[in-house]
Amino acid sequence: MNKALAYEWFRVRSLRSTWVLLVSAGVVQFASGLYWGLKRDLGDLDAFVSSFGLTARLGALLVAAVGVCAFGLDYQHGTIAITRLVVRAPGRIVAARAMVTGGLGLAAGVLMVLLAGAGVLAGGGTLPSDAARAAVAAGGVVPLTVLSGLAGVALGGLLRHTAAGVGLFAVWALVAETILGTVVKVPLTALPFNGTALLSTGTPGWTGALVFAALVAVALTATKFTLARRDT
């Protein structure tokens, strides 16, 4: 397994897209923090918590793109054969990519939280006096980025195409779940992506995150089986 992790870490850090996407997620979150920090008529709103609205979702989408690239680029560039020769076991390939991408998702979530706070302070705002509320909001960003990255890995492995994987994730997260919530009347807290994203705004409840985690587990398992069947 150590060999698989070393191979995957070398692969992912050598891709310029990895760092561009992760830095972009942080920049977007800083800009949101700055925007809210500059506001002076917030009323009962909190600048730090409010900065995690739409931008937390956009940041998670960028992290998901990193995950999709893990398999999508391998297939598009024809290097999946090299990956199979080096790592061999499909289960180890999927596990290594999930672990490395999950770690990057964790780092991205922490970076987004730190830059959101920095943006608020740069705009002349103040960090929340309610530490518990701030901690809940900040803690909600991390599972969103981690699960989004893992979902991206699964989509890249199942679809074998970067654009298709990112596009499907975006359509599901930003369109399909909106329809489910507004038309079908599925509770927003129960939706995998948006339910998890609500945690970053201080909304209680982990139903969406648990659903998201279950779907990711199923998708990664399916990726392992399809990898074994397609490339043997």
TrEMBL record:
Coiled coil: none annotated. Keywords: Membrane, Transmembrane, Transmembrane helix. The chain crosses the membrane at residues 20-38, 50-73, 94-122, 134-159, 166-186, 206-227. It comes from the Bacteria. This is ABC-2 type transport system permease protein. It comes from Amycolatopsis xylanica. The lineage of its organism: Bacteria, Bacillati, Actinomycetota, Actinomycetes, Pseudonocardiales.
